[in-house]
Each structure stands twice: as C-alpha cells, then as structure tokens.
Design a protein that fits this description.
GO molecular function: 3'(2'),5'-bisphosphate nucleotidase activity; inositol monophosphate phosphatase activity; metal ion binding
Distance between the termini: 41 Å
Structural class: alpha+beta
CATH class of the largest domain: Alpha Beta
Bound molecules: adenosine-2'-5'-diphosphate, magnesium ion
Largest sheet: 7 strands, mixed
Family: Belongs to the inositol monophosphatase superfamily.
Protein name: 3'(2'),5'-bisphosphate nucleotidase, HAL2 family
Organism: Rubidibacter lacunae KORDI 51-2
Radius of gyration: 19 Å
Strand order of the largest sheet: 3-4-5-6-7-8-9
Number of domains: 2
Number of strands: 14
Keywords: Hydrolase, Magnesium, Metal-binding
Strand content: 15-25%
CATH superfamily of the largest domain: Fructose-1,6-Bisphosphatase, subunit A, domain 1
CATH topology of the largest domain: Fructose-1,6-Bisphosphatase, Chain A, domain 1
Helix content: 25-40%
CATH architecture of the largest domain: 2-Layer Sandwich
Length: about 325
C-alpha cells in the first residue's frame, strides 16, 4: 500500500511518545511558560524528541514542522528541565545522550515544502496538565495535501461520553484508504465512519474545554441552527476530531474567540485530525467553507475558524454562520 512505511513509522513513534506522556502525566508534571504565555512540559519536549528521532532515522530527507524547539532547554536556567526530559527519553531509547535529545527536538524546526511532516507532540497541553484529554498529532503533507495522519489519544475511551471500553486510542488514516481506530494494546485496527444523519443519539457537537480558544456562545447558536439541540461535549485537543471520525459527534466547531480575533490556527493543531475525519467520510473547512491551507506556512494565515462535520450537515453550518 502507498505510504505503508510512513504509516508504520508514524504509528510506532506515536505509541512510544504516548507511553512517555502517560508516565509523565501520572507524575503530575510542572508547566513552564513559553514566550507566547502558553504552557509546555517535559512531556511535550520528550514526545517531540522521540517522534523526530524516528522520522529522521526512517526518512532523513523529510522536514518536520513541529510545535516545540529546544531554545529554552539549551539555556542555563532550564538545565534541570533538560535533565528530566533526557531521563524520560532514555526510558525508551536507553543510549540517548542529552545532546541527541536537543538535536532531535530541533529537528522539528523544519519549514513547509513539497513534502514534510507536521507534529504536535502534545496537543492540548492544558488538558494534559488537568489530567484530562490530550493528543499526539503527526501528519505527512505532500504537494499541499495531507497523505497520512496518526492521532494518539492516550486518555480517550472507546465510548467517549461514558468512559466505557479501552482507554488509549490511535486514529489512523492514509489518503484514499479510509480511517481506522486501533485501541492501544490491540493488534487489530477497525474501520471507523462518521455518524449517519439519522442517528439522533450521536448528533451532538464537540468544542474545546477552554472557552478562550473559541466562541462558546456562538458555537452553541450555530449548532442549534444546524439542528443540534443537545449541549456540547467539551473535550481538549484534537481528540475532538476522533469523536467526529468515530461517529460519536456530528460536528466540531472552533470559531474565533472575540478576545483574540487575530488568532490564526497552526497546521499541527489540525492536520492529523483533519485527514482522519475526511477519510472517515466527513468534511473539514474553515468558517467560510474554504479548505484549510496546509502548505503555505506553519500558521494558516488565510483561514479563520474551523468547522469539522460528518458531511451532510456541513453546508447548513456554513450557511448558519452567514458570512
Ligand atoms: N488563543 C488560542 N485560540 C485557539 N487555540 C489556542 C489558543 N492558544 C492555544 N491554542 C491551542 O489550542 C489547542 C488546544 O485545543 P483545544 O482548545 O481544542 O483543547 C492547542 O493546539 C493549543 O495549543 P497546544 O498544542 O499548545 O496545547
Ligand atoms: Mg496544539
Ligand atoms: Mg502542543
Ligand atoms: Mg503548546
């Protein structure tokens, strides 16, 4: 199958990173603050190191556009943090040196091009710090189109609402080959599909836990206008794409926050989730109904807001947005 090698490397690396994140989350990590005032932890750095190492080894010519960099970790003030990151990485790569770890993290400072990977080593760091949902999101983009996506959701359960079923889910997709769900520890991935329009129980919508990352009042009004009367399920990170792809929600709305109208989305916050939803039969656009631009830069400067749906309700949502 096309992209089989890329898929296998991405899956193995994401599962290794998930192991590191689960261990760190159980130990209740401290958060550091980045220049943009968002949090980062030793698990964000460790996850990026492990995944960049694996991609660099298998595909040495591929650029990686990742969220984190090692600038702060190279500073004297963060010497202890660096020791902790390296310790965590060595649990999975015993011969990893401290310089190796820094260099692997910085391998994620690539730029977009004809073929590149985009990585969010922990998407939803705020959820991770609350002991709730987060995702490890890795996607391959070629000629402006996402070809492979792997989304690791270590805290998500097969039944998202009740918490029943296996905890720890890997969502996978290769362009044109459908989307699959592999519970952690299982050998068998199963195909997933978005919700049917007549499945009333799952015709709900998902949105961020963080009110400041969206516009909850407008999101509720738009969902209602599109025929979704029940309250939202609030989930951190790209796990929301997993909810739509696995037919447990019909809609994910992320409208610009009135407090930060100039905010533009990063490609690593959406690419892996987007291909999983599209390959499960759904649709992903910006709030104007336009395709998201994956290859123009790390920030999607020409897109605003994100609408993710099962497909049939998409046009009603865009027209309810009325722009
Ligand atoms: N002001 C903001 N508006 C929208 N998204 C944001 C903002 N600040 C950070 N984010 C990103 O929002 C996402 C969290 O997802 P959600 O809000 O859906 O749970 C993360 O990708 C987070 O980055 P990070 O990867 O650093 O956590
Ligand atoms: Mg993110
Ligand atoms: Mg992140
Ligand atoms: Mg972050």
């Amino acid at each position: 199958m096309a992209y089989e090698a890329e898929l296998q490397v991405a899956m193995a690396a994401t599962l290794a990173a998930a192991k590191l994140c689960q261990k760190v989350q159980a130990e209740i990590p401290k958060a550091l603050e980045k220049k943009d005032r968002t949090p980062v932890t030793i698990a964000d750095y460790g996850s990026q190191a492990l995944i960049c190492r694996a991609i660099a080894a298998a595909f040495p010519n591929d650029a990686i556009v990742g969220e984190e960099d090692a600038v702060a970790l190279r500073s004297a003030e963060q010497a202890d943090t660096l020791v902790h990151v390296a310790q965590q990485v060595r649990e999975l790569v015993p011969d990893a040196g401290t310089q190796d770890v820094l260099n692997w993290i910085d391998r994620g400072n690539g730029t977009v091009g004809d073929r590149f990977w985009t990585l969010d080593p922990i998407d939803g760091t705020k959820g991770f710090l609350r002991g709730e949902q987060y995702a490890i999101a890795l996607a391959l983009v070629e000629a402006g189109e996402i070809k492979v996506g792997v989304l690791g959701c270590p805290n998500l359960t097969e039944d998202i609402e009740t918490g029943a079923g296996t905890r720890g889910l890997l969502f996978l997709a290769v362009r044109g080959k459908g989307a699959q769900l592999l519970p952690f520890g299982s050998q068998a991935a199963r195909p997933i599909r978005v919700v049917d329009p007549d499945d009333a129980a799952n015709l709900r919508f998902v949105e961020s836990v963080e009110s400041a990352h969206g516009d909850p009042a407008r999101q509720a009004a738009i969902a209602k206008a599109a025929g979704i009367a029940s309250p939202s399920l609030r989930i951190d990170s790209q796990c929301k794409y997993g909810a739509v792809a696995s037919g447990q929600a019909a809609l994910y709305l992320r409208l610009p926050s009135p407090k930060t109208p100039g905010y533009r989305e990063n490609i690593w916050d959406h690419a892996a989730g987007a291909i999983v939803v599209e390959e499960a039969g759904g649709r992903v656009t910006d709030m104007f109904g336009e395709p998201l631009e994956w290859h123009k830069g790390a920030k999607m400067l020409n897109n605003q807001g994100v609408v993710v749906s099962n497909g049939p309700i998409h046009d009603a949502v865009i027209s309810a947005l009325g722009i």
